[in-house]
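Example record

One chain of 477 residues, shown exactly as stored in the release files.
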Amino acid sequence: MDTPKVSVVIPTYNGKEYLGEAIQSVLDQTYPHFEIIVVDDASPEDVSHIVNSFTDARVRYIQHVKNRGAVAARKTGVGASSGDIIGFLDQDDLFHKHKLETHLNYFLKNPEIGLTYNGQFEVQGSDRVLCGIYRPPTNLYLADWVRGFPVSPSDMVLKREWALKEEVWDDSFASQVEHVIFNGQEIVFGGRLALAGCKFGNVGRALNYRRYHPYRVLKYLAERCQAELACQEIIFSDPRCPEAVRALKNTASSHIYVMWAYTAYMQEEFELGRKFLKQAIGLTPGFFMDGDPSQFLSSWILWISAGTVDFVRSHEEILQSIFENLPGELQHLEKNRDWAIARSYLLKGLHTMIWGKRDDAKSFIETALEKGGIVDEPALNMLSDELLNYEAELGSTASQQVIDNLSNLLTKLNRQDKSKFLIGFYAQNRAFRNYHIGRFDSVPNDVARAVKADFKYLLNKGVLSILFRSLYSRLKV
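Predicted structure tokens for this chain:
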């Protein structure tokens, strides 16, 4: 395959607002050998005129007579395709211009790989305001698919022989609920590929834009949750599924319940949210009971602070409503209410310093400190992870500017000790990240920045170990 052809399948249903942008993002690719197959899943809205407005012969249009869901639409597109490589793009997502070129180069260098995937930029609404970066696991295995959704369809590109496997298109789960719901197909798709022996490869970049709709209200939450649990069961009940993966069933199912409980609480469907949480508590009680605060509470605070779901209420109002509507089994968390509110302001401020307005970030962080919030190691771990992702995609200059802004703010708030802590902690984490990905030349400079901020890092055995190992690797070259 010197110049393999790529078929990009775009399923659409009532998606006319963003469909044209999605198509254009494929036409803007640096790799020119592709076709675009738009599959209209019997949408009540007429989208044919949007597709036909593109005069490029590489754009094709197929229409379902009956609405059959995104799974069937993608399958229809694959069946009509002629490409050696298949990519998927949701109707409201966008490709980065280097998406196809990067994936094709990866396939050519790694012929054993059957499916490649990438990270994603997260954007809000029609303005495409960047609000985050998701970088998926370095490696994907069956266990990752049964736990949930390590990558979305728009992140995936795969070889034709794998896309044509009939078993990956199983949508029997959709008929197991009262309404026809297609949530969870990625679990079956990725899980069945893994069971069949497909190898997955991370291309190492964020190469599409996933659009979040903060005011969108989802219907049929119970049915959506049940559909995803049914998808998990399809994989767990497969005779090829190893016992070690089956042992993850309670944890995996609990994760689904917790995610849908979160959506229910965001939509103020508290009775349903409590029902989901009770199911999850029965499966993984330690997640909710162990620790002070528990892992459950820490996770939800982090999700709320990222702020991609609910922008109508403030995050403090959201937290207050959560505490007022917890199931009886979680009433012990009431003692963490004040901590949680202060923590949410702090994490919101740190997140906003990266992605939002500096004045808003300053206000959030000031409020957090007034309420007793602490700039501690767990908070800086969150910040470091987000900044390292930010740096990987947008460069070290951009990330350093965020560090400088936040450091200056903490100094102005008479938190000079936290300013030094931030600089040293981030430099240390950056040193470990660069060491583990083989960027040994960068490690000594990172360690030097950490030590300059706080001499204690020179006494850290882990830091010293990666420093000497990196220096030795450079000498060998």
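Notes: The CA atoms of residues 143 and 248 lie 8 Å apart.
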